[in-house]
From TrEMBL, chains A, B:
Function: May be an activator protein for the gylABX operon.
Source species taxonomy: Bacteria, Bacillati, Actinomycetota, Actinomycetes, Cryptosporangiales
UniProt keyword Transcription present: yes
GO biological process: glycerol metabolic process; negative regulation of DNA-templated transcription
Domain of life: Bacteria
Keywords of the record: DNA-binding, Glycerol metabolism, Transcription, Transcription regulation
Name of the featured protein: Glycerol operon regulatory protein
Record domain IclR-ED: where: 76-254
Length: 254, 254
């Protein structure tokens, strides 16, 4: 699962702002520091254009240069991004509730929102001895296999659900649900119970229980989950804690 | 203390990228959702220009519009920013150590970096019953009064120190050090002891102990702190835990 820019960003690529974001989109989890040559190649821009745009982005603080001259995403961009209501804004409100969940289990408490047909992880609190998870704050994942993804998909607009159900569903483990019909039934059961369980669908040693966070108008805007060792985990026992935390965040959002 | 853009961003304001960042800089902690009119006024741009730039930024995902049509910082910007080595990158490495500090005290564990003559808070883990702190993740503060600020100033280049010492030092409480000579002595003592103590210099009920985080080349790149109730706090007892955490993060950075 790689971070991809929204389709719209490509449409805007003719403008200088659009090209600046093409340049910024060249950075990724495995490419957090880039030379000018790497930057130009990954953004598919001529070296001179990349050089000029990078210079302007450095002047704005959106990019920084390290001691070796390589470019990296700048602190100023991170400061601006801390104002994103669906990013750090939501995260600040949710943090005390994530901490409560973490205290209960010493495993992983996660917060995610939907972007298109994927989930974006906004926060994760993890214990030292917690089951290893494959997610990263700021990272994207598929919806059909993760606990938060199943919640966000269950309450997503119909066209989003149909888009996900209409495309091949990637298999991560032997337990991943990849049949559209079975996924449909799962989503119905999530809506009925008010929480989702992803049992060894992402890795064979983990299980997650997730619940919806609702905005002021009642629509589902985010999801919160606990990811624990699958060995001996009791979803039915974990669900009330996760649902209570989700209700707490929902209340804080009003 | 308000979030201000680096001086360089103003110089670039003629270009379209520069103006786009002028528009983004209109957002702030108390202005996270803005109408087009507010956006134009705060960015000091004509309405038509603001409208065009905002449209391009929405197309890139840097801005989003809420149900009421107001603009807000977009999730895509936050995703990009999660790649900033001095933002979430550092934060990911430091998080387990911050959690350890939090476990010890159930108060506030903080992580900050220097930007110019101010500190920017990158992370804060706080307990429900912790002493209230005035900082915000993504927020800026003065260096002369905060624990992390004193550490970052003590190890900053001489020109940065002289710049801070040469300007009026704002008083937050009756204990805030505002005399340049006294601050100079404080900084010398921070370098000698290897940690800083801010005793009721920000609020009268809090005390912080901070220690430096060093990069691979040995230079100080960040600071970590504990902020506790000043009542009965023993900085000498807290310092080893904070220093050990700082050394742990420094090791993780290599």
């Amino acid at each position: 699962m790689v971070a991809v820019a929204p389709a719209d960003s490509r449409r805007a690529s003719r403008s200088s702002i659009g090209r600046a974001f093409t340049l910024l989109n060249a950075f990724g989890p495995d490419h957090s520091r880039l030379t000018l040559t790497e930057l130009a190649r990954r953004a598919d821009l001529p070296l001179t254009t990349a050089h000029r745009l990078a210079g302007e982005l450095v002047a704005c603080g959106a990019l920084e240069r390290d001691d070796g001259g390589r470019y990296r995403i700048g602190l100023r961009l991170w400061e601006l991004a801390s104002l994103a209501p669906r990013g750090l804004g939501l995260r600040e409100l949710a943090l005390p509730f994530l901490e409560d969940l973490y205290e209960v289990t010493r495993e992983n408490a996660q917060l995610a929102v939907r972007d298109g047909v994927e989930v974006v992880f906004v926060e994760r609190i993890t214990g030292r001895h917690a089951v290893p998870v494959r997610t990263r704050v700021g990272g994207r994942w598929a919806m059909h296999c993760t606990g938060v993804g199943l919640v966000l998909l269950a309450y997503a607009p119909t066209d989003v659900q149909e888009q996900v159900l209409g495309q091949p569903l990637e298999r991560y483990t032997e337990r991943t649900v990849t049949a559209a019909d079975e996924l449909r039934r799962t989503l119905a059961s999530v809506r009925q119970r008010g929480y989702a369980v992803s049992d060894r669908q992402v890795t064979m040693d983990s299980l997650s229980v997730a619940a919806p966070i609702r905005g002021a108008d009642g629509t589902v805007v985010a999801a919160i989950s606990l990811v624990v060792h699958s060995d001996g985990a009791q979803p039915v026992a974990l669900a009330p804690a996760v649902q209570a935390a989700a209700r707490g965040v929902s209340r804080a959002l009003r």
